[in-house]
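Two records follow; treat each independently.
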Amino acid sequence: MTVGGLSKNEFLSLLFREHHGWLAAWLRKKTGCPHHAADLAQEAFARILCLADPAALQQPRAFMVTTATRLIIDEERKRKLELAYLDALALMRDSHQACADSPEQIMLAVEALDAIAAMLEGLAEKPRRAFLMNRLDGLSHGEIAAELKVSASMVKQYLAAAALHCYRALYPAAPDIRTA
């Protein structure tokens, strides 16, 4: 193919020499980054190379601007899609993390609570409540005393009684530690 006596390669070379600098400058203004602008200009020219008849371009700059604008729009769409994908992955990871850990942790917690409930069977209500408030809720002796309306020293006795009760539930064949 020849255009005005030029081969296709000569025409493309002339087109590049005449318009590349202008297109790169236009893209620098649009993107604010000379490196990104150079990449987009290169991609725009690569698309011109793929045209069946580049010599048919009546207004090469208009074609380059349209092509470069579409490239910028495509990049923005890809960026938004990538961000949405990353956000979705983060949500899935967070919910998957919660879901992945949650059933196992719930099962372990339920089993532990069942074991604690079994150990505390037969214990009077106030020592049992004091033990649970201390061990599960992390309340201090004073806070438990206020809740149960007893003295702090009584809470200490309740906790000791609950600990002894749990020891006996765990080790039924063990000697009585009060007499040892």
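The next record belongs to a different protein.
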Amino acid sequence: MYFTSEQLLDDGVLEREFTVGEIPGTLWIPASAGASGAAPVPLVLMAHNNGLPRTQSRLVARARHCAAHGYAVASIDAAGCGDRPRSAADEQARIELRRAMQAGEPVDEIFESFIGPLVEMAVPDWRTTLDALLTLPEIGGPVGYSGWTAVGIRLAVVEPRIAAAGFFAGGYVPRAQRDEARQVTVPLLFLLQWDDEGNPRERALDLFDSFGTKEKTLHANLGGHTGTPWFEVEDGNRFFGRHLK
């Protein structure tokens, strides 16, 4: 892991850009975490939906808020995501997916052919990054996950260091992850926008029902895909506080 830049933000959070091999990422951490004698802080991995960049303003706002409450928060551009290279086929699939969703046409096959491989590529990058982050003396366990449902399901199943997870917008999830959902046994907070134009409500409710964990909570709010109320960020911090601290 190589740190390429560092700046202290006005909320007392230290923002550090890093690379792990070809993986670019950002780490937000309380500035006090590196102080002499300070205990290591828990880690939250934060992923945006469907390959959007780690620099997206809503993700950055959530990450900084979480870090200000005593967590190390990391986000990456995994393979095929953010600023990482994308094939012409991937770009065409994105265009077709948006067009079909806007037109109200069936999107399952397009979704499977595009998002399924994206999840398969992203999860190894997240695990490699987690290995590197946990070598830092200011970061300890346990580890939480927040964000993209499909990647989160796979990570929660294959990565024993994930102790709790918060998932967003889970209507459209590849078949492989829908099948894996029953293997998710960590405490879970599932956020649902009731009028989400990009994630069918019934699919999201069915997915929530299928999770195998004995501790799962569903928060549903009125509004579209980007209308999640800010108080859910506060609730997310309390959720991680119960399971990571």
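Discussion point: The beta strands are 2-8, 13-20, 23-30, 41-47, 72-76, 139-148, 162-168, 188-193, 216-221. How would you locate this feature using only the token line?
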